[in-house]
């Protein structure tokens, strides 16, 4: 039903475009978005708030009409997939997105020839959801693969944190080197270390195969290891004795199982966060991160905070998804593979005052070229001076 509404709105906008074009004459419109219009997070949010301070443009956040995250947005919004949002896209100067332009900004763009020509009129900026390293890009549906490849390679600006990430995008994603700019992730500019040694953030990433498997979520090693860790009596006693809170965020793509996790997670010092939780706050106030393969690890690493990689299914993960980073040699934190070792490392990290070891600090320059908090300014100048003025 939603698809039909989007396509009807797209068609209506296409035919209204000639009659409304005069209303957009001389306007410098930039659109931003992410997470298919559901959330207000990460690099898209960081750029939106930065651009809002500029007086030479109109900036809009694209968001779903019924998204709970609307109340978090401090600025102008457009309903994703509405006639108005399609019209604004057709008249925009630049669009910035963290997943894909079709998912975040213009539903079904590039799939419909009717509106496809407008795709090439605007400057397209791919911000990334997170640093590309721990999860390989997956093969597409054969029917859509060529179209998706054309879409990805058509983006004008593709950001990277360092030469390491740029090489991945060029060699594996087949992106033209001239379109990849090493400027650093915009959201890193907003990060400050405000931890007080009293909060641990646990954020496992998603598993695409779980939705395809016939087993229930409760039967998966994913569910059993996550809930098994937080149910550990040794861990719960440790958290209580030291007045430490462990906040858990299940990846947004696994939120259909939140009810099961809510029933499976309990503890006086254990908190399961809702879908719309402020992840930025968890990053800056958390003293350490426990994850498996989430790009959130780089946010903590950027802040010189310890990361513990709880990789209970590494063999399966490498076989089904894979990592660009060598998980044996290139991780910037300790890796554990069972609940007992994970609890032991948490306690050890606490004993070390949540300090990151020197051997990992030496790896920072490999993954971050810039730590000067000017990533957004660099990107803004590239969009404005190097691309828009040349069109």
Describe the protein.
- This protein has 391 residues and is of the alpha/beta class.
- The chain contains 18 helices and 13 strands.
- It has a 7-stranded parallel sheet, sandwiched between helices.
- Helix 11 links the parallel strand 9 and strand 10.
- The mean pLDDT is 92.
Instruction: Let me know the average pLDDT.
Output: 92
Helix/sheet category: alpha/beta
Give the fraction of residues assigned to helices.
25-40%
The largest β sheet comes out as:
7 strands, parallel
Global outline:
globular
Strand line-up across the major sheet: 3-2-1-4-5-6-7
Radius of gyration: 22 Å
Number of helices: 18
Poorly predicted segments: none
- State the end-to-end distance: 38 Å
The oligomeric state is: single chain
The count of strands amounts to: 13
Beta-strand content: 5-15%
Can you summarize this structure?
This protein is α/β, with parallel strands linked by helices. It contains 18 helices and 13 strands.
What are the salient characteristics of this protein?
alpha/beta, 39% helix
List the helices and strands and how they pair.
Elements: H1 2-20, E1 29-33, H2 42-51, E2 58-63, E3 76-79, H3 83-90, E4 94-97, H4 101-104, H5 113-119, E5 123-126, H6 145-153, E6 157-160, H7 163-171, E7 180-182, E8 199-202, H8 208-212, H9 221-230, H10 233-241, E9 245-248, H11 258-264, E10 270-272, H12 279-285, E11 288-291, H13 296-302, E12 307-310, H14 314-320, E13 334-336, H15 339-351, H16 358-361, H17 364-367, H18 375-387
Parallel strand pairs: 1-2, 1-4, 2-3, 4-5, 5-6, 6-7, 8-9, 8-11, 9-10, 11-12, 12-13
